[in-house]
Amino acid sequence: MSAIKPDTDNPEFFDVVIIGAGLSGINCAYRLMKHQPGTSFVILDGRGSIGGVWDQFSYPGVRSDSQIYTYGLAWHRWPFTKPIAEGSEIMEYLHDAVSKYHIDEHVRFHHKVSRVDWSSQRQEWGRYLARWVVMGTGYVDYESPVEPDIPGLDKFKGRVVHPQSWPRDFHYANQKLALIGSGATAVSLVPAIAKEAGQVTMIQRSPTYVVASPSQNNRTPFWIPRGLLLAWRWLYWLIRPYLLVLLANRYPDVIRKGLTAGAAKELPANVPVDPHFTPRYDPWRQRICLDPNAAFFKAFHRPNVRLITGEIAAVTDHGIRMRDGEAMDFDAIITATGHRMVLGGRIDIRVDGKDLAWGGRFVWNGCMLDGVPNMMFMLGYTNHSWSLGSDNTAMYLVRLMNRMKYQRARSAVPRVPEDVAARGTQSIWQLDSTYVREARERLPVCGNTGPWKPKNRPPIDWLYARWGNITADLDFSM
């Protein structure tokens, strides 16, 4: 299927079409079944399996970069003891959830959506005649990974591998590998590939904050009753990251010193914190990388792992030459240089035949676009787990559907007031990473007041999504 558009020969009607069978789409389906019983819905996914990014990413060491007690599904218990989960464990967990609650019965695979069309006359989205469309497509461009701007990379005679499309036939045992990058992917990859590779050289242009974290949950006070153990863990991992972000914004120098001191304790003497772990930016201006059980730091104690911080002058036929003149030969280059950010999975939106771009459009309550009726998109947090934000969106959806049923309304469309637009905009993504700067023109924006402000306070947002005002600046049509 190439688009959701009218099909008069064989029409199907659903109250909700969810696009994407990843964590956000699965969670939204459960919320509809739980809070909107009798609602008809379908999940469309262009791939052949559930899981979204966790089905797409298969590089060695792939794992979550936030605590699973808040990243996981609030309604399905996480069965493992460790708070940072491997990709295979997350896939096992998701398969168990969709099977247990029969969500898999609503999924249609190999249904790639390229366009959605809204008709004000029919008050419906096309082909599947859906009342609502929910974009559970994440923010990663699955089809077009970032092509790093590295001089001479196309001339390299060895293999060039991008983690986003890790090849199954890539056997790197005893090979000399260059891993270019410094973010979460690199932090996961280094300890995983160092076990088999002959040599791993991590090359970073600029460092990232990395913090070691326990691989097992051992922070439950003795006085917490066993029956409240799960609630304690959930609250602990919900509040703690939020407080750390607040402290980082208020006292960046203090948090910076703590992070660099923590890194220094884990590193060998031949890997100094400066320049390798002293970023130029303040903590949480870009995401902080978690290192379960200090596996990344421990990798640099191995004789076959090396870290270089500096500029690449060029890639040669058989290796890399740095700007300081150092040259190294490699068998393969792994470009862990980030991903391309895109919202809505590159799906075109049309309202009454008019194309509507995402870029520059105001966002209502972190989940709807100004001027677009009956469409929500899942957006997580930059300073916390993704699924907390997407679950809030699911609650907005079920509450709004209830409200519209009560009012006998058929559609709801956000309209940004002139005074809100006049007060200026701010970024929807509260980080300053390279992939965010590259995508800025394609991203919608937030305002500075009311339901148009960004959602960046997880505990308060959680309460508001369940009991706050959900009708402000919405127009309803009967």
Automatic annotation (TrEMBL):
The keyword Oxidoreductase applies. Pfam families: Pyr_redox_3. Keywords: Monooxygenase, Oxidoreductase. It comes from the Eukaryota. InterPro entries: FAD-binding_MO, FAD/NAD-bd_sf. Its cofactor is FAD. The keyword Oxidoreductase applies. PANTHER family: MONOOXYGENASE, PUTATIVE (AFU_ORTHOLOGUE AFUA_8G02570)-RELATED. This is FAD/NAD(P)-binding domain-containing protein. It comes from Apiospora rasikravindrae.
